[in-house]
Amino acid sequence: MPAEVFGPDFAFLPSEKILSFEEIERLVKIFVALGVKKVRITGGEPLLRRDLPSLIERIHGIAGVEEIALTTNGTLLKKYANDLAKAGLSRVSVSLDSLDEERFFEMNGRRGKVQTVLEGIEKCAEAGLLVKINMVVQKGVNEQDIVSMAEFFKDKKHILRFIEYMDVGNSNGWRMDDVVSKKEIIEQIHQIAPLKRVEPNYKGEVASRFQYQDDSGEIGVISSVTDSFCSTCSRARISAEGKLYTCLFAADGTDLRELLRTGADDAAITECISNVWENRIDRYSDERNEQTMEKRKKSKIEMSHIGG
Predict the structure, then answer these.
(1) Sign of torsion over alpha carbons 220, 224, 230, 233
(2) b/e burial code for range 247-281 (CB count within 10 A of at least 16 → b)
(3) CA atoms within 13 Å, Cβ hemisphere of 293
(4) Is the CB of residue 120 less than 8 Å from the CB of residue 94?
(5) How far apart are CA 214 and CA 66, in angstroms?
(6) Rounded to the nearest 5 degrees, what angle is found at the Cα of 203, between the Cα atoms of 93 and 156?
(7) Domain residue ranges in the chain
(8) Residue-wise pLDDT tens digits, 9-59
(9) pTM for this entry
(10) What is the pLDDT of residues 210-259, one digit of tens each?
């Protein structure tokens, strides 16, 4: 959340406009009835939500939910790891763009410390949670850290995922020239630790999987810019105020909060969701290279609003 955009005077949503835990639980039940098996809690920073472990516990209690994941910047993990694990969380994805304190500081709005995040990661591992680390790679910013990150987490036995720098939202000043491609990332790591391709865990998995040839660990690359995966995307997103989005690069969502709060029954909400999902035509990443710069600058929801 860039400080120049989300400064001290930024008007955040009042609490009454944010979905309650009861409303989130109800929506999860409806989505599970439609076939959803995996739920991810993201943000903004989800650990800033008061009593988050109780939401995890509610979702964990829903029949049909097979996995609950959390995406976080990691700064509060040391405090909450045990509570999250006890509540039923399955795994954690931690954003960490560099092990260099100054680069990390610059890339994350001059907030937090690498050591705090690393301590949170280890606390999660101790609590029995599967941990994945997400590194967004930007040319001229942190590409020099690709190999050192790979070496560090290879030894730690955690899965590291490299993410091509994406044009999510409108505030990150994205340029194609700033993208370090999947091919370049893999070539760098392969030179110091040979890799082999691994089959996806499931249809629609967003990360291309690679394993070290000595079987000492795994990395992944999420390449929505140079090798898009729109055709297999199966992710729906609900924002904090209850809007349904069918694409990370969407501009508009469908208001489910209004249905929840005006007496609509589950059947009506299910019908609304089904209509949106069955008629989606999102393929932004497929179309990115065909678009003019003007079209690419069209209004899109920010990552800090919709999550990853």
Answers:
(1) positive
(2) bbbbeebbebbebbeeeeeeeebeebbeebbeeee
(3) 4
(4) yes
(5) 31
(6) 30
(7) 138-234, 236-308
(8) 656 677 889 999 999 999 999 999 999 999 999 988 999 999 999 999 999
(9) 0.87
(10) 999 998 899 999 988 887 777 788 899 999 999 999 988 888 899 999 99
- pLDDT band of residue 172 (cuts 50, 70, 90) is low
Q: Map tokens 């809690």 to a residue.
A: 41
From the list 113, 207, 213, the residue with the least C-alpha distance to 160 is 207
Structure tokens at 154: 């290879």
Max Cα–Cα distance, the chain, nearest Å: 60
Angle at 102 between CA 41 and CA 209, to 5 degrees: 45
CA distance 210 to 159: 10
Burial string for 165-188 (b: 16+ CB within 10 Å, else e) reads: bbbbbeebebeeebbbbbebbbeb
CA separation (Å) from 5 to 1, 9, 34, 41, 255? 7, 10, 37, 24, 25
H-helix segments, the chain:
21-33, 52-60, 77-87, 101-107, 114-126, 146-156, 182-192, 257-261, 266-278, 284-287, 293-296, 303-306
The amino acid present at 75, given as its one-letter code, is T
Strand order in the sheet with 254-255: 237-238, 243-245, 254-255
